[in-house]
Amino acid sequence: xxxxxxxxxxxxxxxxxxxxxxxxxxxxxxxxxxxxxxxxxxxxxxxxxxxxxxxxxxxxxxxxxxxxxxxxxxxxxxxxxxxxxxxxxxxxxxxxxxxxxxxxxxxxxxxxxxxxxxxxxxxxxxxxxxxxxxxxxxxxxxxxxxxxxxxxxxxxxxxxxxxxxxxxxxxxxxxxxxxxxxxxxxxxxxxxxxxxxxxxxxxxxxxxxxxxxxxxxxxxxxxxxxxxxxxxxxxxxxxxxxxxxxxxxxxxxxxxxxxxxxxxxxxxxxxxxxxxxxxxxxxxxxxxxxxxxxxxxxxxxxxxxxxxxxxxxxxxxxxxxxxxxxxxxxxxxxxxxxxxxxxxxxxxxxxxxxx
Length: 355
Ligand code: ATP
Ligand code: FE
Prior knowledge:
GO cellular component, one term: cytoplasm
Enzyme class: transferase
Low-confidence stretches: 349-355
Organism: Aquimixticola soesokkakensis
Family: Belongs to the KAE1 / TsaD family.
Shape: globular
Radius of gyration: 20 Å
Cofactor: Fe(2+)
Bound molecules: adenosine-5'-triphosphate, fe (iii) ion
């Protein structure tokens, strides 16, 4: 089985070809055309600019993915496309492109939930078996899910306000670092002192594995402004220390809440418990290592995809498409784009995430 995957739900236009052979997934090509430079002057992703850029880049990205895999449409079994959730203009661009290709080639069309793409990535990279506990931590989401199958995810808890990726991006903006904020803040944090500024660890006093990150952002703003009013500005050391303190707080919350989610999960006595992490923030080394240490101490297996498959890509969409094709979940040509699409019906609507 060989699928083309298309992803355009945020600010990356991506196309990839993935093959399932002998029960294993193999990424034959994965093209990611980033729009970072287009949005740089605005300090965040501008939906209209993103949508236009996707329409310009989709066809060439798809051709590049096919060329890199040395395949043509005749070698494919289906076309998988992100049908939500995300910035609607971009999702519409991808869905319409996939529909056109499907109509022209006669290949089946598969609409993929972007979050399922992130959450199923460990099955592509590690062949991880169901069920497993997934911490999905990205630019717009943060949730603990039990992945039962490619179409059934059970939510144990998650953020009640912002997503950590968004907090990383805002932190970068407040400190004059480039977007996307995650890698920039992580880099500064490696040189900083995580103990100098003490940031809150919200909701640790509350049972369960819900989280909150909006207070952290406010605390960072206050700490920054206090430094500016005391000293007239921020030194590079101040900035690095703020980043290190912020990252340490996010890491501590994710570790402690993962401990609780794991407790909940272990009470359901899964045979071989595994915690898998995915999404853009899973590319953060301090967070990955922290979670790995937690799992080691609990005797739970841990897995995290390679960095390039944590942030948005189309290989995860092609892979999710393979899983859906196996489950015979093919879509009709009336497939539509969905701005919101929770993986689990009990998921609350995020406040203030802009998504
Ligand atoms: P979602 O998947 O929730 O719809 P998205 O697709 O925009 O949102 P992803 O591409 O999965 O998000 O992740 C992007 C986010 O990950 C950004 O907020 C970015 O700052 C963050 N990120 C990327 N690399 C790192 C890193 N090394 N450390 C922390 N955060 C990171
Ligand atoms: Fe994403």
